[in-house]
Structure formats: C-alpha cells, structure tokens
Amino acid sequence: MQKLVVILGTNASGKSELGIRLARHFGGEIVSADSRQVYRGLDLGSGKITPAQAALVKHHLIDVADVSESYSLARYQRAAFDAIDALAAAGKPPFLVGGTGLYLSAVIEGYELVDVPPNDALRAELESLPLAQLVERLEQADPEAAARIDARNPRRLIRAIEIAAAGRAHAAARQRSPRYDCLQLGLTWPRPVLEARIAQRLQERLAGGMIEEVAGLRARGVPDSRLEQLGLEYRYVSRYLRGQLRSLDELRTQLEIAIRQFAKDQLTWFKRDRRIIWLDSAGNYFEEACARIRQWAPEWTPAPGCDGAPPARAQPGR
Question: Does the structural domain 192-262 have CATH classification 1.10.287.890?
C-alpha cells in the first residue's frame, strides 16, 4: 500500500506549520484536510496558509471551490485520492494535513461514500429549526449516523438528514476499503497553553482583518445563512455585523469560548483512534516526527539542502 503521513491536531496546535516543515524536509507535498479551506475567499477565518507559506511547499485542495457551492465529503475524498495517488506516482511523499475529522477519516479509512446532491427545499426547511429538533430528526431518520455525528454542528446534522432523506446510507458509512498505509502523528498542547494559543491567534486574526473579510463576503452577496454554515469565525462575525453581538469585546469573548469548545471536541474525536501517535509538544516535536517517519519509511530521505527550519508565519497556531 502507498504510504501516507497524516499530520492532525486541534485548532491552534501548529499542525499546518509542522506539516510544511516535514514536507519540505522530505521533499513532499501537502494535501489539505480542512473543510473550509477548500473555499476561495475564506482566508483569515479558516486559518488558511499565507502566500509565503504556500510558496515553500505545494498544497493541494485549497481554494478549489466557490463559497456558493456545496463541497461534499464524497467530492473531497475523490479529489484527495487523486492528489495522493498523483504524488505517489511522481515519487513525492504525500502529507495529509488538517483538523477536519470527517475529511481525515474519509481518506484514512477509505469509506465507500455516497454523493447525494443538495436538496435545497429540505435545507431551507431544516435551517429554520433549532439544534435540538435537528438532532431529533436525524435520530429518527438514521440512528447510527446520529450516534456518530457532532450534535453541535448544524451543518453536519442537516447534511446527514439530507442523505438519509435520499434513502442512502450515511456518508461515513459501514463499508471501509483502506487504500493507504497511514502513519498518523497528532499535535496538541496542555489545556492552558492551547487556550492561550487560541486567544493569541484570534486576536491577531481580528487585528489582521477577519471582520473585514466577512463584511466583504456579505457585500459580494454571500447570505448570512451560508456564513452560519461556514464555521465559528464566519458565524460569530456575521452575527456581530448584524448587531446580534453588541461590541467587539463580546464578539471576541464568545468566539474564543466557542473555539475552545471546538478544540475540545476535536480532541475527543481524535482520541478515539488509538493508532494516532501524539507528539511531545514540550519537546522538539519536529525531530520526533522526523524520527517516526524515518523508522516507518526508511526509503524517505531528506531533500537536499533542506534542514526543515520553521517557516515564517503570519498566523499563529496553524
């Protein structure tokens, strides 16, 4: 089986920077596993790599869809398989890097997915329902999917109900056909450190123009209902712009709390997989990751003239 290194972690863990360093060191390329970075125009709010970082290592599956599109899990899986297989054929080590659990699982496990097209009428009905009713609808339609899904994520709930209504198995279905030999390396931090990193990153993104980014999306016609679906940063900033949050301090406080909870949920998801090797964030985790990769894939040798020095970053914690 083709070998694939997976670099995963919680929000603000530094996984993107680590992925860049490792891909440079081994002469590889990165396949992104982030459900929002596939969309053009979602930059600061999604923590997308900077142009300077993108120039260091080629990234795949970033900026591949318009924000008005629905980029399904099945579509992502097909594109990720194509990118990884092309890298393998070219003799370049592939690195799958990100924090979206379903995207990572779709590639690692090789789920046999169904690609149900969007049902606009059903979505319009579901988007008006409170979270508790969405959970109840999914439990009635597909109890197995309801047991697996993040019950706090309305976008995931709506999509699962949509698939169930089409009479098909839930996307993260029962059939698995793994096609890669994966080395999963995880990165996170002790809770106080991680919370400080989240706060710092949020402050820098707000100062860097995240509110202006969301305002620009609204000005270009992206509806607030769509922004609500695009993750915490877009959800809370759009509410701030609509006057539902009274001040910048209230925005910062509520959004920081929500991101901290999201990071906790990510860690809960990842901890279920005992194959993940968690790197020691208190030590030299780059060298530890290199050693793990060399032991697992001795044929992967360092690229000439690259010492794996950390790239300059404009966004903390990626």
Answer: yes
